[in-house]
Amino acid sequence: MLIRLCVFLCGLRYVAGLVVRLEAGERECFMIEVTAGAAVSGNYELIKPNDKAKPLSVTVSSEDAEKALYANHGSPDGTFAFDVKDGGILDLCLANGKKGKSDGIARSVGFAIRVTSQHTVIENVDNAGSLNELLEVAEQLNEGLLTLTDHQSYMREREETHRKTLTTTKSRIFYWTCIETIVLVLLALWQIISVRHFFEIKRRI
Known about the structure:
alpha+beta, five-stranded mixed beta sheet, four-stranded antiparallel beta sheet, about 200 residues
């Protein structure tokens, strides 16, 4: 399944906190349109950390580049950041193993990707160096805050998944308890009827 996400560079635009479910052997790609000189950053995280992350792979590549701009295999989480020299289309692909070579386990992966325009270097101004350093620090702080927001959304998704699992487990326990109670009651009635029938036959004899 191929989803096209167009990210236009107008200040800061980003795709944050998306969660996709990958069946065993499934690969899903997202296309991001960027302009020349853009700064791309993002992160991903396996929603269920108990699942083995070995089959999971994440790659970011461009149409023209022969080598992937970012690639990571077998890690439950990761971050990436790079600058794009030429504009075009980037492909962000998430894969849960390969067809015919998977472990049969579906996995949910949360990811976020941001595209920002690089700040203009200030020149011919008093304390230009300090201002440029301040801008860089501000960008780093902003990136850190956005990454923290992404992880919070992943945690909320993880909590929701655990809540659904707990609710399902409680429902199953309740249903099985009801069934067990009904079976015990029927068994007790059958024993009472059998004993009564036995004594009635014995009394007649």
